[in-house]
Design goal:
alpha/beta; 5-stranded parallel sheet; 4 helices
């Protein structure tokens, strides 16, 4: 099973993802903002990071850039999630691309597809 880091400032989203992913047998780490996420990712080198885009302190795009720029985390799978994706805004302003995107609100089918990609 995988180690997955959830980075989001919305507790209900984090709780839902932690419940689903833990039930599937994954080890789940949690961070409330991008800076906490960056620290945890560097310390634990998770297999997957699922991060919100709009967060305080360090947003999801900045987290994506930081993770991609470090040799230790450059190959970590990163999924960004945001309600803004429904409006077509998926790319980091600097053109760095995530491994996948989840549009909020998401459904369980989207999470199942995400998990299928890990197995």
């Amino acid at each position: 099973m995988a180690t997955i880091l959830i980075v989001d400032d919305e507790a209900p989203i984090v709780e839902l993802l932690v419940d689903i992913l833990s039930e599937e047998g994954h080890t789940v780490l949690q961070a409330q903002n991008g800076m906490e996420g960056l620290t945890l990712a560097r310390a634990n080198q998770p297999d997957l990071v699922i991060s919100d885009v709009m967060m305080p302190i360090l947003d999801g795009y900045a987290l994506l850039r930081e993770l991609r720029s470090s040799p230790e985390t450059a190959h970590t799978q990163i999924i960004l999630m945001s309600a803004a994706f429904s409006h077509g805004a998926k790319l980091d302003p600097n053109g760095i691309v995530a491994d996948g995107y989840l549009r909020k609100p998401f459904d369980l089918a989207a999470i199942e597809r995400l998990l299928d990609g890990l197995n």
